[in-house]
Write the structure tokens for this entry.
Amino acid sequence: MKTLLLRQKQVILFIIAGALSAVVEIGSFKIFSIYLPTVFPWEYRFYGIHFPLSNIFSTSCGILTNYFLSIWFVFVRGRHSKNREFVYFMGVSFLSTMVSLAFFQIFFGFVFSSHLDLSMIVISREMLSKVSAILLVSVMNYTVKKKIIFNG
């Protein structure tokens, strides 16, 4: 078991960093989705897009958290300079954000028609959609970051 853990250390650290980044992203999304609509009433539905600013701001918080956790704990710096590495990371993150936002809209509009009541806790449609979108995009992020950005 110990050998397996040592061989999969990077994947385990990526999962932990991703989980912490997801906590930042989901937590900030909850805060933004509560308070931004009080300032911007169109935040609930902007040309058919649900919670656009909340999604963009919270995803940005998650991306920055993930970048720093990735360079500090998960990946060894690759052959790219720090500046180029950051640009690549942000570029990949931008693309995955667009994919995540699309998945969020699909989940919110078509998959989760109501909240999830677990008797002790109730999870809203928007939170179910956000978490589902994050999980789907995570696999793509690890693969691209490992193979292209931090490829050594």
User: Anything to note?
Assistant: Strands lie at 116-117, 122-123.
